Fold this protein.
Amino acid sequence: MAQDGPVRQSVRLGTYAGIPVGVHWSVAVIFGLVTWELADIVFPSAYGGTRAAYWVTALVAAVLFFGSLLAHEVSHAVVARHHGIAVRSITLWLFGGVAQLEGEAHTAGADFRIAAVGPGTSLLLVGAFAAVEAFMSAAGVHGLVGAVPSWLWKMNLLLAVFNLIPAAPLDGGRILRAGLWARSGDRTRATVIAARVGRGFGIVLVVVGIALFVGYDDVYGLWPAFLGWFLFVAARAEEGAAMVRRGLQGLRVRDVMTAQPPAIASSTSVAELVHRHLPWYRTDAVAVVGPTGWLEGILPLDRIRTLPPLSHADTRIGDLAVPISAAPVARPEEPVEDLMERMAAAGGAPAVVLDANNRLAGIVTAANVDRTIQVNGVRASRR
Ligand SMILES: [Zn+2]
């Protein structure tokens, strides 16, 4: 899976190919379950051996399986980086792995390659472990030891096939999106369709899981049910994000920005700003300037709400403002969608818009963008 939704609460495992890799706490549970099932059920039912041998073999198999998962995610990350998309981190968790990408592919071809390399890597591992199994069998190695590569190629095959199901956010859903995008040239529409298929698939998994659990008294039915729910939620979030982008499609930064924001001295107190200056302006943000008129920062007005009213009198607006060094820079004629990505990467910081002479032309805050999306939504629904 390659997606940008955050999976939190992870423990840092190390750095591979320059990308931080973390493990979510849920992996410990799955790791334990996989090892236990192999050692206590799968191996003893098929091979002779001691209890210790089952457990050691199971542990080795489980480690190699999680290594396979990691290889799948690292391959997504490496190809994404090759296409100029930064990779924040890789996290292994309950349902496999997530490579957190900053931004999205700029072409359908890149989108396809970033998605396809994951299942491709898993299929390569299928071949590798199957070859090891064949080699061992030809060399006369049978029994418990041979069971490891045999189990591993089957698990990697399962991983590849499951991820190829054309339902976002699975890799297959990304491949579907890339295909639709290449055909229509409309990324947003392609994302929405792939996400809807993902939502439908998620619901099917939930229903099948519950039916297994209730009808057949099968505890393992809960697994597809949880997985389905996760896919449903992730797909819905993707569809929402795509609709936001649609609301901004075709718009330039100058269409959403607060043009010519008032410039207020950084030494002004918040109380003074609220009572003396703001009654005169209709704005979402003010430009905060130093004694020489130099732009020091931006103060989105919703930041004032985070401040207790009692401290309004002795807080300088310069201390509350977002420093200019932390604000993404934009040009008036730039598409809003591109700026949104940079604002998100900067933790939602407002952007300064500079004209051709590098003079302040406007400010873009999250509130500006939200209002534009709402207005466009109303317009679209009236059509
Ligand atoms: Zn994947």
In short: The radius of gyration is 26 Å. The pocket of zinc ion is lined by residues 1-2, 72, 76, 118, 163, 171 (CB under 6 Å). Residues 2-248 form one domain. The longest strand covers residues 86-93.
